[in-house]
Amino acid sequence: MISNQILQKTLDEIKTIVNEDLAILDLNGQVAVRTFRDKDIDGKKVADFAKSTREYKEIPDFQLFKIKDDTQDEYILAVRGNSSSTELIGRMAKYQIETLVAAYKEKFDRDNFIKSLLMDNLLLIDIFDRSKKLHVELEAKRVAYLVELQKKNQDDAIGTIKNLFTDSQDFVTALDKKTIVVIKQLEAKTTEADLEKIAKKMVSALKSDIGEEPIIAYGMTVEDLKDVSKSFKEAKMAQEVGKIFFQDRNVNSYNSLGIGRLIYQLPMPLCKLFISEIFRNVSLKDFDEETIETINKFFENSLNVSETSRQLFIHRNTLVYRLDKIQKITGLDLRVFDDAITFKIALMVSSYMQYVESLDFK
């Protein structure tokens, strides 16, 4: 439904052009918006007109016109005055408002259509019929982006993103209070690198326009409208996996999740069994910050002892001592490739378990 704010702005603009007062009323004769305050409109006469089959009627001081949405009556337009020019003004204003109502209805319908599509709430025949009615192409290359905001600037963020993507086949809508979903139609030769550029373009624009640095996740490209929900689900997984394993990233692709995607789909009992086998009676909570920093830096430097000790500003022998200590506690020597892989996977599984536990706690 079109807002009263939009209707009021429209009436004010029409009055500026034609210098006549106007009002829009509901079908019960209640005034929604108007450009004057010095005179009342007979609500009963308006309601009686709304119930009639007539499209136009004169009442004292006003001429009435029905505003339609397709064939259904939506509003009553009242134009102040009873001259022939008043009727002409009324018919012109009626056309303008009906066009506006139709445009907003299509926008609303398209928004609902995409949300239903993402949630798999439509049959194939419904997708075909509604896409045809709403002028949405069935076969086109598309991808789903999820834009997660850190602040509450959703309306401003949506405006910024819409300014980036002006194609009528692109969709931008709010998913919840913090998340915006973007369904972007792509060119046939769009690559994975292009998808990342689009995401970074959104990050840059939002940071510049509203001071918001979002986290963006996206799925794989699809060729058919009915498969958009698949890309959307992949984007949601990329969003969740990114929170767990890639907290330093502001862009996460479903195609770049690596082993994180596999761990994310493991059942919790299996995770607990794996951790108990690897760490036995040891918990990651038993490691101090210094040890955790050493482990992470060692992995970042591809198990290079010299480079790790240099970046940690410690002597090489000090690093060797710390690695020996970790081996003594866990039985895993991080200098050995197989043990390092096992330990790295165990760290990721532990992070996943902590994330799931935090959700259960909430």
Task: Explain what the structure shows.
The protein has 362 residues and is α+β, with helices and mostly antiparallel strands. It is built from 13 helices and 11 strands. The chain has helices spanning 4-18, 43-51, 84-118, 124-133, 154-164, 192-210, 228-245, 259-264, 268-279, 289-300, 305-312, 316-330, 337-361; strands spanning 22-25, 31-34, 56-59, 62-69, 72-80, 139-148, 171-174, 179-185, 215-218, 222-224, 251-253. The protein is elongated.
Q: What is the number of strand segments?
A: 11
- Summarize the helix and strand pattern as letters: HEEHEEEHHEHEEHEEHEHHHHHH
Assembly category = single chain
Which spans have pLDDT < 50 for at least 5 consecutive residues?
Answer: none
By helix and strand content, what is the structural category?
alpha+beta
**SS element count, helices:** 13
Q: What global shape is seen? A: elongated
Strand content: 15-25%
Terminal CA distance reads 36 Å
Task: Describe, in short, the structure shown.
With 362 residues, the chain is an alpha+beta fold. The protein has helices at residues 4-18, 43-51, 84-118, 124-133, 154-164, 192-210, 228-245, 259-264, 268-279, 289-300, 305-312, 316-330, 337-361; strands spanning 22-25, 31-34, 56-59, 62-69, 72-80, 139-148, 171-174, 179-185, 215-218, 222-224, 251-253.
List the helices and strands and how they pair.
Elements (H helix, E strand, L loop, with lengths): L3 H15 L3 E4 L5 E4 L8 H9 L4 E4 L2 E8 L2 E9 L3 H35 L5 H10 L5 E10 L5 H11 L6 E4 L4 E7 L6 H19 L4 E4 L3 E3 L3 H18 L5 E3 L5 H6 L3 H12 L9 H12 L4 H8 L3 H15 L6 H25 L1
Parallel strand pairs: 9-11
Antiparallel strand pairs: 1-2, 1-5, 3-4, 4-5, 6-8, 6-9, 6-10, 7-8
